[in-house]
Amino acid sequence: MKDYGDLLKGRSSPADGIRLRCLDQRWQKGGNAANTCAVLAEMEHPSEYLGTMSSAAAQLAFIQNDFRSAGIDFEHCVYFDGYPFVSSCIFINQQNGSRTIAHSNRIPDLKLDDFKALDLSKYKWIHFEGRNIDEVKKMIEHVRKYNASLDEHKGSRAIPVSVEMENLIPGVLELAPLGDIVVVGKDMALPAGYTDMKETARGIARLARPGAAVVVPWGELGAALCFQETGEVQVFDAHPPTTVVDTLGAGDSFIAGLLYSLCQGQDVRTAVQVANITGGIKCGIPGYKGIGERFKKEMLKRKK
User: Fold this and answer.
1) Is residue 241 in some structural domain?
2) Residue 7 placed within a domain
3) Which among 191, 253, 265, 276 is most buried, taking Cβ atoms within 10 Å?
4) Confidence (pTM)
5) Number of structural domains, the chain?
């Protein structure tokens, strides 16, 4: 799913029944996977967005042009006639960078047949959002069957799979045993009965597939990592900016940093630290433009 958002910036968050004058306004494409692709593009790492969109002309042109300008592939997206575009109205609080979101989505989700249109030999890593659970499970099984068919002696590489469980929706825990990397959001963990990131990481790791790693980002407290094989939990500090400007997409930026690092061949512990850095950089700037340059500077500083 892909959406566009009307972002409004104010001196404080809106209260019920009041009228506020905004300080700024902009249009911005959104959606978790699309945001992650935008950050990967900033980091000069190629990615493809696969999802469903409305064919409504004005909004579609805006989003496609945004994808093209960032160099993000969207060749295999599926379009639906007769549906309004998925949209959000987002209010950003200037005082602390927090966001309040009103969201509308009536477009059908991606199906297995849509996913089968991909030539899997062209992909190094595939990341799934925890939505449309039954179809996502089939897509992951399709990747596993592809991996099982490979001849390693001919240089073929299996495709790792990561799964993001952001919210507690029906069936989402069924994805926990399916990913090589499982990312669990705070908004899923707390309603599921977990109290903190360490308990969440340990609990989900018990459900994970052999050899998997569970990553639990927890905002300003950092992120926890737990390996299924040992059950040991390690916590990595957050890297907040000097001033929090805009937290919209911080979690998606965390995912981008994680995937970027893993695709560079770095170990999971390093990847979680890179993810924390990327998420922190995003919180210090409006939107996503400039994340790549700040990321490069941060990495160079750490090498000295």
Assistant:
1) yes
2) no
3) 253
4) 0.90
5) 1
| 276 token code pair | 């924390």
Locate 31 and state its tokens.
Answer: 């959606």
Q: Token pair of 292, please?
A: 């790549």
What residues have CB less than 8 Å from 69, skipping those under 6 apart? Answer: none
Q: How many CA atoms lie within 13 A of 76 on its CB side?
A: 16
User: What does residue 213 show for φ and ψ, rounded to 5 degrees?
Assistant: -125, 140
Could you tell me the two tokens for 191?
A: 């309603």
CA of 276: how far to CAs of 32, 221, 259, 295, in Å?
Answer: 17, 10, 12, 11
CB 173 within 8 A of CB 184: no
What tokens does 98 get?
A: 């927090």
Q: Output the tens digit of pLDDT for each of the chain's 304 residues.
A: 444 455 555 666 777 777 777 777 767 777 899 999 999 999 999 999 999 999 977 788 888 999 999 999 999 999 999 888 777 777 777 777 777 777 677 889 999 999 999 999 999 999 999 999 999 999 999 999 999 999 766 777 899 999 999 999 999 999 999 999 999 999 999 999 999 999 999 999 999 999 999 999 999 999 999 999 999 999 999 999 999 998 889 999 999 999 999 999 999 999 999 999 999 999 999 999 999 999 999 998 887 6
Q: Which domain holds residue 265?
A: 38-50+77-83+111-303
Helix (H) or strand (E) holding 4: strand 3-10
Question: Is 268 inside any structural domain?
Answer: yes
Place of tokens 């579609």: 60
CATH of the domain at 240: 3.40.1190.20
Which of 82-94 are b and which e, b meaning 16 or more Cβ less than 10 Å from the residue's Cβ? ebebbbbebbbbb
Size of the chain in residues: 304
Residue 256 within any structural domain of the chain: yes
Q: Is 290 helix (H, G, I), strand (E, B) or coil?
A: coil
3-state secondary structure of 91: strand
